[in-house]
Amino acid sequence: MNTLIRVFFRTNLGFLLGWIVPLMVLLAASPSALYAANPSSAEVAALGRAISANLGTLVMYGHAPEPLGYATWILWELWIWLGLLGGVMIILLAVRLTRAMEEDGIVELIRVTGISNRTPVVAAALTVLLASGLFGFLCALILYAQMFKIEEFELAPSVLSGIGIAAMLAVYGGIGLLAAQLTPTARAARATGLSALAITYAFRVIADVYDFAWLRWLSPLGWRHILDPYLDNNVWPLAVFVLAIACLYAPTLAFTRDLGAFWGARAFRPQTTRVSEHAFNPVSLHWRLNRAIVLWWALSTIAIAICLFALIGEMDSLATTGTEMMDSMAQLLGDTELSSIFVRMMGTLLGILLSCAAIQTALATLRDETTGTLSLEVTSGGPRYRPLVVDWATAVLAGAATALAAAPLAALVTDWSMRSTYGDATNTSEIARAAFWAVLDQLPPVIALAGFAILCVGLSTRLAPLAWTVLGISGVITYFGELFQFPDWLLNASVFAWAAHQESATQWTGALTLVGIGVVTAAAGTLLRSRRDLVCT
Q: What keywords are annotated for this sequence in UniProt (predicted)?
């Protein structure tokens, strides 16, 4: 058992570091940035009074603690990000250690060593729990380390925060393990787990907007309000959280199943469909293999776009709360108009989602290569470059279609939100137009990152994580570069910094450069992979 857990950690070390390190850097840098922007605790308290009744911040982060200090501000703002991004990490890890390993044949190799059928699942569950605990421990350590500069970060509340974050991730890890048992494929398990994560976020929003205190217990993203670190420091809810974790992990550990079997077999009965002979071509094959994930990303992105841009009016009303809020938000994104700031924030967030979808679709060729599907396609007489070209084109076209559908909807809900807040007295067409282009301006980064993903696969199957690394670094630079006062050359290094429609003028040079980078890197990756051996696991 111990050996298997060590193997799981060793083989997923790069994956874990790629997620944990950026999040810990964000957590470590945020208190200092907040202190630099607001050196007086009175200014932070004033900001708290300004934003406590705002619907936009309520939906995004929940109820602000009262009184709002440095420590409570950081935890209030970052709990959601740590929960969402950490939840994605732990769900993907849980699926990787269970259903994905079964698909790759690794679990079968492990079982032939003589261990019981339950041992790999138990080892996977323990690995998920240990990873969650490590994440929470690092959060507690980083929070307490801020004590050397800001006295509010005391030991006991920092430890309570770390335990709460670890419990939150452990819940999502249990959801990922359950999803792997309930679904027939790793892709379906990931979609199920991430959908559950989205549902818990919706529960948290409903609980905060309509003040349903009992509903916060059903969403780990709302547990910060229950624990209330640095204020009430409620310890007793941890017992309830541990019980919830035990209930989530119990079915996975108590029941065994055969390799390839799944508990939801009745819900996935095979269906016979008539397919024309024209459907049996490489393009339609790749579409049939990728259509579920493409449609899932498209519908999710459009729904998120509608929800986010519907908050523009509420967020813009923060301009009436005083100069402190304006100065802080201007420092965050380097602008002075709150409507422009939030339109850019929402547009960049949608760009990150579109880029995630494009990278995952482009990297489908990596999955086909490692599982042997690509070998079968190549040996049938097709050119070796075609799968990469088809996957890159699918990623780009899917991103373009999603952006074209989301952009007018974003403009419409922005116009509605501004009119609902200010009435007909204000001219909303300019802000709605900015929202429209804020979405469409994300297409060049999508094309560039999809092409870079193809280049990584073309060089080596082991370089695929680099595509995600570039996306993560660009997102951090764009969102926090102004706040952390990064130099201009570093701010311009982000792929999201070259939007064609800037505040002052329209500049197509950067956008066209990104499109060119996407085309060139995709062509280079296609050429490089056609000259190397295929890797099958």
A: Membrane, Transmembrane, Transmembrane helix
Amino acid identity, residue 171?
V
62 versus 217: the higher-pLDDT residue is 217
The tokens of 294 are what? 């493409």
Tokens 């880029």, residue? 355
Helices 364-371 and 282-309 cross at an angle (nearest 10°) of 140
- CB-based burial, 385-398: b 16+ in 10 Å, e otherwise: ebbbbbbbbbbbeb
What is the structure's pLDDT at 29?
A: 84
152 and 70 in contact (C-beta within 8 Å)?
Answer: yes
CA atoms within 13 A on the CB side of 50: 20
Is 142 buried (19+), middle (13-18) or exposed (0-12) by CB count in 10 A? buried
Q: What residues pair up with 506 in beta bridges, in sequence order? A: 501
Length of the chain, in residues: 537
**pLDDT band at residue 325 using 50, 70 and 90 as cut-offs:** very low
Q: What is the C-alpha radius of gyration for the chain, rounded to an integer number of angstroms?
A: 24
The distance of Cα 467 from the centroid of its chain, to the nearest Å, equals: 14
Chain CA centroid to CA 167, Å: 19
Rounded Cα distance, 11 and 4, in Å: 11
Centre a 10 Å sphere on the Cβ of residue 182 and count the other Cβ atoms it contains. 20
Average pLDDT, the chain: 83
> Mean pLDDT: which of 310-314, 331-335, 337-341 is highest?
310-314
What is the distance between the alpha carbons of residues 358 and 398, in angstroms, rounded to a whole number? 8
Q: How many CB atoms lie within 10 A of CB 271?
A: 5
Residues 394 and 362: their CA atoms lie apart, in Å, by: 8
**Partners of residue 501 on adjacent β-strands:** 506
- Domain limits, the chain: 1-36+77-264, 284-532
- The 10s digit of each residue's pLDDT in 391-434 is 899 999 999 999 999 999 988 988 887 777 666 656 677 888 88
Q: Report how far residue 202's alpha carbon sits from residue 183's, in angstroms, rounded to the nearest whole number.
A: 23
For tokens 């349903």, the residue is 212
What is the rounded CA–CA span in Å between residue 332 and residue 300?
27
**pLDDT tens sequence across 175-199:** 999 999 988 888 888 888 988 998 9
- Can the peptide bond before residue 408 be classed as cis, meaning omega within 30 degrees of 0? no
